[in-house]
Amino acid sequence: MNEQELSRRLARVGAHVPKNARLADIGSDHAYLPVALMLQEQIEFAVAGEVVKGPFHSAEKQVRKSGLTNNIVVRLADGLDAIEPSDNITAITIAGMGGTLIRSILEAGKQKQRITGSERLILQPNIGEKTLREWLVANNYTIIEEEILEENKKIYEIIVAEQQTPVKYSEQELLFGPQLMKNPTDVFYQKWQHELAARKRVLKELEKAEKQPVEKIQELQTQIQWIEEVLA
């Protein structure tokens, strides 16, 4: 992967960034995504934010090498602290982290007023999609698009959200993804077949415990039922 040829996962994240956006890419690593989008003339400005010095310097080097120092600002900062009000950001990408971490980054950014609610959020959690969707709903975001894909034997989900008229989602929609449920793909079924087997294994172990965690067992039983219904 490089700035000319993104991984399929990152390319699909980039595909959800609106044309001529002012982008903040948080956890940008080598800044491959903002550099690629700028070279494709898809965005007009970008901030590449990194909290770790090594990837931060790699991003700086990549931006310089690509001749984009006037178009992409690289900042060493924690999460959405990389965004300044003068950046006028219209889209935020956060990819390749756990859903719980992405959620905490968004919450901290909201508390510090680093996000206004007008930005499109393009989020690619590696795990913990449900907790991320719960945060989005609690903060009046509508999940406008979702995508699920497989790359290098791993399955990834992309969640695209904007603040619109509040939408209520069921617990099933928060687990599976409201948009993914509408148009389930082979990869969607593959993921949930795996998740079903994993939950059944955990349930079996919990039921053997001397002191059974009743609430956890009930939660697993409910989710197993939902998954079996989706796969039916």
UniProtKB/TrEMBL annotation:
Gene3D superfamilies: 1.10.287.1890, Vaccinia Virus protein VP39 (3.40.50.150). InterPro entries: SAM-dependent_MTases_sf, TrmK. SUPFAM superfamilies: S-adenosyl-L-methionine-dependent methyltransferases. It holds the Pfam family TrmK. One of its GO terms (molecular function) is methyltransferase activity. Keywords: Methyltransferase, Transferase. GO terms for biological process: methylation. This is SAM-dependent methyltransferase.
